[in-house]
Model the fold of this input.
Amino acid sequence: MLKISNLKVVFGTGATRNHAVKNVSLEIEKGKSFGLIGESGSGKSTVLNCITGLLNCWTGEIRIESRLQQTRRDLSFYRNVQMVFQDPYGSLHPRHTIDRTLNEPMTIHGLGDANQRVEKVLDEVGLGNRFRFRYPHQLSGGQRQRVAIARALILEPEILLLDEPTSALDVSIQAEILNLLKQVQKKRTLTYFLVSHNLAVVSHMCNTIAVMNQGAVVEYLTQKQLREGNIQQPYTLQLMAASRGFGR
Done:
């Protein structure tokens, strides 16, 4: 469903040159979840921004269902690939009702049956029609993130890009959102690309994990290897220690 080959990103020139992403390659099968993990500044969000088309200064190959993507994407790409952002407080327009937020992507893509689609997707994310004409400030953080997920789902994409989707939420709410994402994935056979700094999150969500450090992938792991602690790289062990709340 998604394949990246030898992705490179360089910012600046001369003394300020920063090789942010170094020959990153990965593959995600249809209906599976792939986790890209690393600390802040490791390059994982840069990879995500290359996939979305927010960055165009990359070299290498990005393929969606075997179709080679250029630096500029057409409207059909954004119908098929949607993103859930990290901060539900910042990703929703404060002066738009939930109804307007969910209708906007349908208007852009010329889709009909707006009322039916909005009602269906609000039920799917566990909110219901009673939230339809509320504003973001009237919702809790977890409810706002449910709206953000609904906005991503309303175009019926095949791929969801998840940028730290629970890190801005209270710990008590994080598991609810992760379980919702798993339920939606199973129901719709979605493909997930999850960026996180938390090994516990990717262990819960992802079939395969890549660990990034200083712009490069230093280790690939299966979910089973991660859960059993079958880890080779010291950096990955440090991330595991940090996710458990201790370290050296």
